[in-house]
Queue: 3 jobs
Job 1
Amino acid sequence: MQRYKKLLNTPILLRLARLTKYYHLVLSKIICNFAAMNVEIERKFLVLNDSYKKESFNHSHIQQGYICSNNGRTVRVRIRDNRAYLTIKGPTPEGGLPCYEFEKEISLEEGTQLMRLCEPGIIDKVRWLVKSGNHTFEVDEFFGDNEGLVMAEVELTSVNESVEIPDFIEKEVTGDSRYFNNYLRIHPYKTW
């Protein structure tokens, strides 16, 4: 515990340390009781070619790790360029496509420190943003153990919302757990 004393010297890290000790109980209560929590609805696709790079209006480097992940619930740390975020995700009571998501920006120093607490398997990727109709597709080009995998996702406001699919999309993989980032950190693409 002595070696973590310096690491756990900020209020958010102290709270997170307590959370990870009792994360099953605390996370369940957070997920179930936050009526104001965002509901995320997204579709995922495999990408056919790299034409998305020419169509992209922005891109950023992302590294993310998981402090805990269990029963469809995750606590994730993400560093995106020079900003850091702490995200809690979990299933809605209805299950299926939508999921609860709570995200808070934290300092880059906190994010860097929290990455040291993550479970093995850090996700490393570049995210490219591509406009298609009224939506923005986030195209993730993976590196490290997941090199060669390129996926796109688009966030929706409802499950039945129509979306204009760009030409670089190969096929839909929404709901296929092999393409969840949490799965990829444990079962990297290079091992498939």
Job 2
Amino acid sequence: MATAYPGALDTTGSQLRTDIASTDDLDASGKQHDVMHVNVHGATVALETKLGLTDSNAVNKAILVGSAASTTSWTTSPTIGGTVTLDGSGGGLKMDGLDSADANTLDDYEEGTFTVAFTAGSGSITADTSYNTCSYVKIGKVVHIQGQIGVSSVSTPSGALNMTGLPFASANGLAQSADWVANLGTIIDLASDPSGGGSVYGRITNNSSSINWRAQAGTSAGDSTIADLIDAGTWFWVGGTYTANI
């Protein structure tokens, strides 16, 4: 009986012959019709034994898995009892915005770049077109961003300072401002130091596609109007992680 599945086809040892001609005698040595019938049926039984029984019709976008001992089924949500290994060069696991409703399901992976711009309470700040792009990696809802942004020119900016263009809006609706994040970078080569001293940092509030830049010094309430500190030649160093709304 054929038993070599799936390692090799039974074309050797007179199991399943592929060289029988229409003019061959049905009782020629190694080509006897009874031997051929037994071997063909044996191969079918062996195949059924390997694949299991029950669902035999393919299902769209499903895979055939072992659902019990000697039993298989087609499913679009397979459960694998072990480690899945992908070792093909150039391959990988593609998850492109599957948007699962299950909070514990990894449903997205994405890499890319985004172009930023600036807004001020009044006046304008223009990004250097040679240094206005950041990169991002999104894994599930977690987005990591990084880059170096230059300023080419300003026109009497003042008030709040924001960097627009984030690739995804930030999370929204989490309790106790859990959808906010800070310390996403710093700014160097300012026109002047922040009033009261302290450091400059970027933050993302809830449901936002911008980084809001502020200054903070010790126990002070902080300065949310630092656009006037930006000048041509100022540099923004961006780096950090936030949670997206999708």
Job 3
Amino acid sequence: MYTVTDKRREILLAALAIADEHGLPAVSMRAVAERVGVSAMALYPYVGSKDALLDGLVDVMLAELLDIDRPAADPADRLTALAHALRALAHRHPGAFPLLLARPSVTPDAVRTTDAVYQALLDAGVPASQVPRIERMLATFVLGFAVSEVNGRFSAGTADPRARRAHFPGGEGLAHHRLAGHLDEPVDWDAEFAADLADLVILVEQIGRPDTPGDAAADRRVRPARRAPAPAIRRAPGRSG
């Protein structure tokens, strides 16, 4: 039996496909209706409005995160798994992914995803009063890094340090010249994401255990190396990391 839920999902998947193929500006009620094979007016009983359609896209994407196999015990591993899954989601849906930065987390699967992060932070010992702030910090890092890879600062055409230094006349841009040997090195975005995330997880652990001696806290910096290797990302065609 074909249900309202089935039809709504068909509409949202059609909108997601349009975003993946042509970018978010191409997602309109008319374009989605044409993809589904109905009139634009026929969409409204299922998605209500253009804003509701965009919120639905957020829900469809985040539902993919709820399907991943997460380690059940260690909260740091759960946070790490969710972060890598969210980054991989950006590479699967580069056109639609920026919606996660633009839309509030109000849909059911968005709330469930945030709740999973809240629970991991609570299990890590983070005080309840600090959980919302720490969740925003982690989400901002992961979303910002992922968007920068697929649609922004890290994409093709922005990562040539020699070209950037050429814009500085005379003695300007001294820090760029001082760092030239490092800026010219190729960047392994998988390794950089894993290292940045590991530092943030260490911070979360320290917040969760404020009485941990400094040396013991520093010793935990080796823990990420003992976890499962970070998954390499398959990038969308035509984009560079």
